Amino acid sequence: MTATKNHSIFKKLGALVMAMCLTCAMAVSASAAETADVSGEYTVAFLKEGTTTASMAQDAVNGNATVSENADGSVTILIPIKPIEDYRPMGFLWAADGFIQGLTVSDGTAVLQNIVGDQVRYDSAELVITLPAMPSDGKLSAVTASLSLFYADSDTEYPFVSQMDPTFDIQLTKVA
Fold first, then answer.
1. What phi and psi, each to the nearest 5 degrees, are found at residue 79?
2. What's the CA gap between 52 and 43, in Å, rounded?
3. Within 13 Å and on the Cβ side, how many CA atoms surround 114?
């Protein structure tokens, strides 16, 4: 009976040691997941706020975004943009060309850089967004853009709707 009791104690100690090893392994892998580098190329979707439906601002996206993780853990997101051409604001019969002039992002900053063309009617530019950290789901919620509208192929601003400030979400998905 004593041999059986000793054997049972060793089995229990073995199970305890195995459980502790698994717990340590899970903690190490969780820590590694938290520190994974988020740098890389991402697809960009400008979505109507709170939905998975493309926003009219999606037409301004001019390719994939580049995300860089900074030494302090913050991230810099570069989104290439272009004019939104032949947009029909609020169902108007006339088409407009729209130009994002800036963004307001919660807990971060956003600026328009590398503008090709003049400062208002440009051919291309980059939105540079800096955040304290990359959102775990890749989503920036309630982003507000300042958008200038002009008659299509014209330097004349749309009266009454020349300044619009649409709010949308930005979904970033890492390219495999």
1. -115, 115
2. 14
3. 10
In 3-state terms, what secondary structure has residue 157? strand
At position 82, the amino acid (one-letter code) is K
* φ, ψ (nearest 5 deg) of residue 24: -65, -40
Q: Specify whether the CB–CB gap between 85 and 150 falls below 8 A.
A: no
Give the Cα-Cα-Cα angle 90, 121, 148 (nearest 5 degrees). Answer: 30
Long-range residue pairs from 30-37, CB within 8 A, at least 24 positions apart, any chain:
37/69
pLDDT in tens, 10-59: 666 566 566 565 565 555 454 444 557 899 999 999 999 999 999 888 99
* DSSP bridge pairs for 109: 130
Cα distance between residue 52 and residue 141, in whole Å: 12
Which of 66, 124, 126, 67 has the alpha carbon at shortest distance from 102?
126
Backbone angles phi, psi at 80, to 5 degrees: -70, 135
What's the Cα-to-Cα distance from 95 to each of 56, 87, 90, 170, rounded to whole Å?
A: 13, 5, 11, 25
Confirm if 138 and 42 have CB atoms less than 8 A apart. Answer: yes
The kind and range of the H/E element at 119 are none
